[in-house]
Amino acid sequence: MLEPLRQGLPPLDPTAVSSAASCALPARYEAVREARQFTRRTLDQWDLGDRFDDVCLVVSELVTNALRHALPEAGAHVPQAQEPSVRLHLMRWTERLVCAVRDPSNDSPVARATDDFSAESGRGLFLVDSFSDSWGWHPLAGTLSGKVVWALFRLHPEV
User: Fold this and answer.
1) Alpha-carbon distance 128 to 136, whole Å?
2) Percentage above 90 pLDDT, the chain
């Protein structure tokens, strides 16, 4: 099975960045729907609506994983000022789109080994790997704790 790549984003020319958008997501499963809606609006604004299906599937999996595995257990006491958050970032370069999900956990994403492709859970990172061109993760630095899990999509240059 695939191993998560512990690396930063692939080298991208910062002068080629054309657009970026992000949104904070609440610590509840309805956030997956909000992430899909945000992704739809953003890709439409960037004239990338034709990539929505693949990107939306990956965004849904990354956000679901963050909510399911990276937030404190239900009932755990978390001070209001330190309430964990999940944040979705979409960044567009000339020929690349990156979806990145930040969460408060320092734990590495773990791909489950399974041969049951009809299972309803446990296939999220397999889907991310299948539908994106590359993916990985890296810990946050400085005063922020947690990590970012990202997926990269190659965009076809306009002719």
Assistant:
1) 10
2) 49
- The set of residues, in sequence order, having a beta carbon less than 8 Å from that of 15 and lying 6+ positions away, is none
Beta bridge partner(s), residue 22: 89
Report which of 35, 81, 88, 24 is spatially closest to residue 60, judged by C-alpha positions.
35
Over residues 129-158, the mean pLDDT reads: 88
Q: Which of 22-36, 39-53, 143-157 has the lowest mean pLDDT?
A: 143-157
Per DSSP, the residues of 135-159 read EEEEE--TT--SEEEEEEEE-PPP-
Distance, in Å, from the CA atom of 64 to the CA atom of 91, rounded to the nearest integer, reads 20
- In sequence order, which ranges of the chain are alpha helices (DSSP H)? 30-45, 52-69, 124-131
Q: How many helices (H) and strands (E) would you count in the chain?
A: 3, 5
d(CA 2, CA 27): 28
Q: What is the C-alpha separation between 83 and 26, in angstroms, rounded? A: 10
Q: What is the tens place of the pLDDT at every residue in 48-78?
A: 999 999 999 999 999 999 998 877 664 444 4
